[in-house]
Amino acid sequence: MTLQQLKYIIEVANRGSINEAAKRLFISQPTLSNAIKDLEEELQLAIFERSNKGISLSKEGVEFLSYARQVVEQAELLESRYLNKKPSPQYFSVSTQHYAFAVNAFVSLVQEYGQEEYELALRETKTYEIIEDVKSLRSEIGILYLNEFNGKVINKLLKESNLQFTSLFTAEPHIFISINNPLAKQPKVTIDQLDEYPYLSFDQGEYNSFHFAEEILSTLSHKKSIRVNDRATLFNLLIGLNGYTISTGVLSADLNGNEIIPVPLDIDETINVGWIAHKSTALSKLGTTYIEALHRAIAPSP
């Protein structure tokens, strides 16, 4: 086993493709494939699973990757300290539901640890894809919510994928609306009061099951309903159409301005927002730093 082979494994896992990894490593695809095959034979371990859909880490491969990343990181620290060698570009990815605090934490991460070269990814995406991203280690961390309604289904998927949910905070439901919405001055709003306003939600693609909805109360019917794919569009429609969406109430004026406000929703529900990661892998340095940044981003203002 060589350090170079470990770097090959990490690159293939990051890309999800031997062909793409080979391009990034400036080697031929057969050379890379043979190096991985030799390592698997030496260890008597199937690090990757191969199928018609491509290549992905096996369950044992996920654990191996965690150790490989630690070894390579330590080796690069030694090279940087004693050989004055420039460290490899940093790589980190997080997949999340559409939360402003997740973006704020990502900004803090880049500002604190961004080197001259880095390759980072922030994927605001669908609930099912968040779980798949973390399962395959396309992302190290995922951010989503659980509640009484979706908990059984989501927790079953997490268990099957060897993923663990860690709570960040529990929130009471709020609606997000424009400051010019007639409901903006209400101390609380009821479901009935929302009946005449357009309901905005994030599209979940082929997994549009109620249990994967990013908004609670997903089984309720609405006279006016619009699905969107990104947060900017949703916020524009909140303002332009006097629409509303249901979320945690945690907003960022720095990112979203002051034209959108949260108003408490008068309903007996809670939203448990947290992060998911593999049970069998330790977080990387950037992963640990990002979690710390998340806690700072959701902390109440002094």
UniProtKB/TrEMBL annotation:
CDD domains registered for this protein in UniProt: PBP2_LTTR_substrate
InterPro entries in the record: LysR_HTH_N, LysR_subst-bd, WH-like_DNA-bd_sf, WH_DNA-bd_sf
Source domain of life: Bacteria
Key words, A-Z: DNA-binding, Transcription, Transcription regulation
Pfam families from the UniProt entry: HTH_1, LysR_substrate
Annotated HTH lysR-type domain residues: 1-58
Stated family: Belongs to the LysR transcriptional regulatory family.
Name of the featured protein: LysR family transcriptional regulator
